[in-house]
Write a structure and sequence with these properties.
With 190 residues, this protein is α/β, with parallel strands linked by helices. The protein is built from 7 helices and 7 strands. Helices cover 26% and strands 12% of the residues. The strands form 3 sheets. A 3-stranded parallel β-sheet has the order 6-3-7. Strands 1-2 form a two-stranded parallel sheet.
Amino acid sequence: IRVPPYDTNSPVSPDPNHDWGTIHGDWDGGKVDGFVTSGGIQTMSYTDASQLAYYYSLFSDFTLCVNYFGSLLGPTFPNRLYLAGATSGGLTTNNVVAGSLDWPVILDLLDAHRITWKVYNIGGACTVGGGLTSYYCNNMFQLFRRWYSEPRVNSFVDSDYYSDLAAGKLPQVGFVMTNDITGEHPPYAL
């Protein structure tokens, strides 16, 4: 089946299914020809400069990473775990219980080397409820037992970032975590 790429004519990206099975169907054993048959017609959509004027305005003056490649052919949470600990720990779904994971992550290394750090939760603090982190929360550090209730992971929001910046008191390493709405995760506006 051949489907030409099409402009969505919208700043809202579609959110085609990106679970383990669908992504592996897209990949099709390395042929990378299963997008439409596995993921549907949405996989052929794009957004151009007329909807993304701000981003396109940056190209002439800044380096902007416009291609994203996941660490794992699968959904959001396992890929976010690679940022935290360079592995998904074998997880291939978004069904991860908050505070349930237990392997070393970058926060352990920073603490071991006495490097100051904070996680700034832009768009509001990420909350956990019913044992599962909100799908809309990008703060993967809450998934780890050691860091689940750590104030440096959970307590800081937008205003804290701006206060620390204005006072010249940013930590040596700052993680800026958005929620999906402010972080442009489909299907939210770019």
